C-alpha cells in the first residue's frame, strides 16, 4: 500500500510533510533489526532518502550527535 501511494505522492497525506511522515521515518530505523530490506519497494526507499535529506532531519542528527554522552 505504501509503495503504491508513494509512487504518486511525495508524502503520505499529499504534498506536505506531516506527523505521519515523521513517524514512519522514525519507524524505518527498525527495519534492519528485522532484516527487512527496501529493495523490493523503490518508491518507499526514495521516500526515506527524500526525508533524510530534509534540513531539519540533518539538524536533528547533528544535535543528537552533539548531545551524545562520552563514554
From TrEMBL:
Per the UniProt entry, what species is this protein from, by scientific name?
A: Chromobacterium violaceum (strain ATCC 12472 / DSM 30191 / JCM 1249 / CCUG 213 / NBRC 12614 / NCIMB 9131 / NCTC 9757 / MK)
Domain GST C-terminal: from-to ranges: 1-70
Q: Which residues form a coiled coil?
A: none
| Top-level taxon | Bacteria
Identification of the protein by name: GST C-terminal domain-containing protein
List the InterPro entries hit by this protein, alphabetically: Glutathione-S-Trfase_C-like, Glutathione-S-Trfase_C_sf, GST_C
